[in-house]
Amino acid sequence: MTTQSVDRTDLWAGLEALDAPPAKAAGWEEPLPLSGPRDLPAFPAHTLPGWLRQYVEAVAEETQTPVDLPGCFALAGLATAAGGRAVVHIRGNWREPTNLYVVVALPPGNRKTAVVSALTDPLFEAEELLKTAMQPAIVEAQLTAKLAKEAADKAAAKASGADPEERDELLSTAIGLAQTAEAVTVPAEPQLLADDATAETVTSLLHEQGGRISVLSAEGDIFDIIAGRYSGAPNLGVFLKGHAGDRLRVNRQTRKEYIDKPALTMGLSVQPSVLDDIGRQRTFKGRGLLGRFLYSMPTSLVGEREVLPEPVPQEVAAAYRRNVIDLTLALAEWTDPAVLQLSPEADAALVAYQRRVEPQLAARGGALGHITDWAGKLAGAVARLAGLLHLAQHLTDGHATPVAEETMQAAIELGDYFTGHALAVFDAMGADPTLARARSLLETLRANGWSEVSRRDLFAKLSRSEFPTVDDLEPAAALLEEHGYLRMYTPERTGNRGRPPAPRFHLHPTLRQPTR
User: Fold this and answer.
1) Burial of 122 (0-12, 13-18, 19+ CB in 10 A)
2) What are phi and psi of 112, to 5 degrees?
3) Sheet strands side by side (includes 212-217)
4) pLDDT per residue over 52-98, tens digit each?
5) Strand 86-91 to strand 338-341: parallel, antiparallel, or no bridges (unpaired)?
6) Residues 6+ apart with CB under 8 A from 379
7) H or E segment to which residue 334 belongs
């Protein structure tokens, strides 16, 4: 797999100095770093259909941004067109919607706004075309509602002034007309993308727009909104259910809204520090929001950019615009979602992928065991990606053609890409508690400058919030021993009575040296 080396960003600030191996000391091998920036897979643009790949690569060239950024927003754009209008039938009762949550982390100065605009402009055009097409029906419904209300009001007025022998019949007529007026529904003006991403607004838009809406933004403000920074309390419900398609009900004094299968799409480009911040939000971790995003953390090209890059070829831009609009309009009428079927070969490829991933979810020794909330959704994410790639290949008749094995393999490759980046992101968030505690333990050892220390004395120096009991110390100490920072031993008993001696640790000599 092609890889790209990741620059040290502020996500890794402080970790490099903490994990860097000290110089070799007599009688000790050089310790191994606990962790460091991973070599992240490059975005596999070749997995995209030709018209989409050409545009993604051309936008990356013109804006001099990593291809990951337009590539991820291209996927989010497809999800905007298809979300709530198509589902992937895997097998049995397992169906996956086609909406996505995608977040790309890049430092400032990477022209994120220009890229997001280039990828989303055709969606706004499609939205305007949908509004134009819906306008006659909206006007007709508004006029019908107005006339029905006027008729009901006149009938009610006539009944109120009628003689007693006529009043019952007139009142019955007025009630019928009022019920008719109430039954007239004025369609909402079509909207694909939302600017305001508060939980209340997103819920209302999902209700109005037949269960789907998309938030595509070059900013990460939505995480502050979700966390309740402006409202005072976190409100995750719609963002959790909007990804999974779980039934959503809102019953309040001011409004009652019901969405059977909500399909919310989010495509966000944020600064790396935003991911660090949300990783510290216990609400996000505990409720599972972080496990719903596909993450990308590409290498910034700032400082290495071409001053005179090639512009996007007109024919490439025209093909992208035309195809995105065509796909969006073709799916817009499928309020009862189109069902995408897998070919037997595609299903077999997905089964093989599931069998490859499953052992990695093991809590002990599994490469993904510390991020099971995210990795447990990986097969479903791959199925969603396969559905989107399939629709991008079959713009008007995707429902009539099964998803091919080649398409599923392309989605699996995208899944591997997002897995590599998710591991790096969750590393920076401290998702692995043993690794996080090992770092804290290593920092304590360096700060105290011991040559050796008893387990009891070491435990006394540690934070009780991170190490509530001695048992919590053991895995972290074992990890440091594996990496050569310490050696645990048990002193010999000096007598036959009393407790056995407590374990002690010999420490690597260079831990007593000042941190570089």
Assistant:
1) buried
2) -65, -40
3) 212-217, 263-270, 101-105, 294-296
4) 999 999 999 999 999 999 999 999 999 999 999 999 999 999 999 99
5) parallel
6) 350, 353, 354, 357
7) none
